[in-house]
């Protein structure tokens, strides 16, 4: 969905869900526990299979968060 002035991204993780993570809520909880990155499950916004991330933070923090998310995804595959 094209942004309408907010500072959030909804990221599709449907391909990452399955036996290990039944929904994006479980995925987001594991991301927080294992990587220290807090994102919001799409279910909170009626977008199952997505998570929401805010980009209203310093670039240094955003880069570190994205790096941690990438590492988490690679370890889960």
How would you explain this protein's 3D organization?
The chain is α+β, with helices and mostly antiparallel strands and 77 residues long. Helices cover 39% and strands 16% of the residues. It contains two helices and three strands. A three-stranded antiparallel sheet has the order 1-3-2, with helices on one face. A hairpin with an 8-residue loop joins strand 2 (40-41) and strand 3. The longest helix has 18 residues, at 59-76. The mean pLDDT is 91.
Give a brief description:
Helix content is 39%, strand content 16%.
- Largest sheet: spatial strand order: 1-3-2
What overall form do the CA principal axes indicate?
A: globular
What's the end-to-end separation, in Å? 27 Å
Low-confidence stretches: none
Q: Rg to the nearest angstrom?
A: 12 Å
Helix percent reads 25-40%
Beta content: 15-25%
**What class, by secondary structure content?**
alpha+beta
**Main beta sheet:** 3 strands, antiparallel
Q: What is the average per-residue confidence, as pLDDT, rounded to a whole number?
A: 91
Q: What structural keywords apply?
A:
single chain, 77 residues, alpha+beta, 2 helices, globular
Please describe the topology of this protein.
Layout: E1 8-12, H1 24-35, E2 40-41, E3 50-54, H2 59-76
Antiparallel strand pairs: 1-3, 2-3
């Amino acid at each position: 969905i094209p942004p309408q002035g907010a500072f959030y991204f909804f990221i599709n993780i449907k391909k990452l869900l399955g036996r290990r993570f039944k929904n994006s809520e479980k995925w987001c909880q594991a991301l927080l526990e294992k990587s220290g990155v807090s994102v919001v499950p799409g279910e909170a916004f009626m977008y199952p299979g997505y998570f929401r991330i805010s980009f209203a933070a310093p670039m240094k923090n955003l880069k570190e968060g994205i790096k941690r998310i990438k590492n988490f995804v690679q370890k889960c595959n």
